[in-house]
Specification:
alpha/beta
């Protein structure tokens, strides 16, 4: 029996989320719906323009959100990441532990660069735009891996954002090699259009040899396949993974398995904030398949959980809401 349902590697970030107008976003020069990497000075310049607003602060990072969701649903997760030995780093480590996620941070924080922070700006149409200062997570490397924990897991999950970091990518690929050797199923999220646009070689390396599960949304799929033809997209993506979860917002998702395409209906909801929706989908889906549920059941649960997170502000859900969702599985 596996010790962990999911082992993930990704960027550890503390999210600071602000509600802004489209005019404010334009005035700040922020690219809407995308994740943009910024340095410390750029981050401060952005924050100086947001001093009149109060942020919501929470643990974040794409794979971090995914492992927390899986743990809240009742799964067992291990997360490899890097934070600084500072207040935000201590907050992040305590947040993982408080949600029942085991991590390499439990062996101690490392002095050096400050903990990474993501400035998330949500506009009235519920779209999220992110400016990410990586800080310590830019130094994520193989030292964060726990080979024994990987080998004792059902699933190994790679965050596509690591394609932007040479050492982070090397660490993800080293973990992938351990997982393959140990017969652990592989999963990857494409993460963001900016990763496809600027870091495709890294994503190709993560996909090399195929993966068992691939997660992407419709815009990412269109950019990856260089077409808006959904039939062509399905054919192309199905060559990359045994199972592809192609999310389509309120329309739900499509499960691609070879030549088979299954549409799973979404859950109607008034969207307030799309931050964390894809992460939540992946966490709920991987939880369900790790517990022996069918992929359609997993996608149904994932659509439900994603709808709950976009129906509120913030990237995480209360555990009680997730428990209620999984009760109907």
């Amino acid at each position: 029996m596996s010790k962990y349902d999911l082992y993930a590697i990704g960027n550890a970030l503390v999210d600071s989320e602000f509600e802004v107008t489209d005019d404010k976003l334009i005035a700040m020069g922020v690219l809407k719906r995308h994740m943009t990497l910024v340095d410390a000075d750029q981050r401060q310049a952005l924050r100086d323009q947001l001093t009149d607003l109060t942020p919501r602060t929470s643990g974040g990072g794409s794979a971090g959100n995914t492992v927390v969701a899986l743990a809240q649903l009742g799964g067992k997760a291990f997360y490899s990441c890097r934070v600084g030995d500072d207040g935000l780093g201590q907050f992040y480590a305590a947040d993982l532990k408080g949600h029942g996620v085991t991590s390499n941070l439990e062996s101690g924080l490392i002095a050096g660069a400050p903990t990474g922070n993501c400035t998330v700006m949500v506009t009235p149409d519920a779209e999220r735009s992110m400016c990410t200062y990586l800080g310590a997570t830019a130094e994520l490397d193989r030292d964060a891996l726990d080979a024994q924990a990987i080998a004792q897991s059902q699933l190994y999950y790679m965050e596509g954002y690591l394609a932007a970091s040479p050492t982070g990518l090397q660490a993800a690929l080293a973990g992938k090699a351990v997982a393959k050797e140990s017969g652990v199923a592989l999963a990857l999220t494409l993460s963001d259009m900016s990763m496809i646009n600027f870091c495709r070689d890294g994503l190709d390396a993560m996909l090399d040899g195929g993966v068992d599960y691939l997660f992407c949304n419709e815009e990412e799929a269109q950019m990856w396949c260089d077409t808006t033809d959904i039939d062509a997209i399905c054919v192309h993506l199905s060559t990359l993974a045994t199972t592809v979860c192609l999310t389509r917002g309120p329309a739900g998702c499509m499960l691609l398995e070879g030549s088979s395409v299954t549409e799973v209906a979404g859950v109607p909801v008034k969207a307030l904030d799309t931050n964390g929706a894809g992460d939540m989908f992946a966490g709920a889906f991987l939880y369900a398949v790790s517990q022996g549920h069918t992929k359609v059941q997993a996608a149904t649960l994932a659509n439900t959980c994603a709808s709950l997170v976009v129906g509120q502000y913030g990237n995480r859900l209360e555990t009680s809401k997730l428990k209620a969702a999984v009760a109907g599985l």
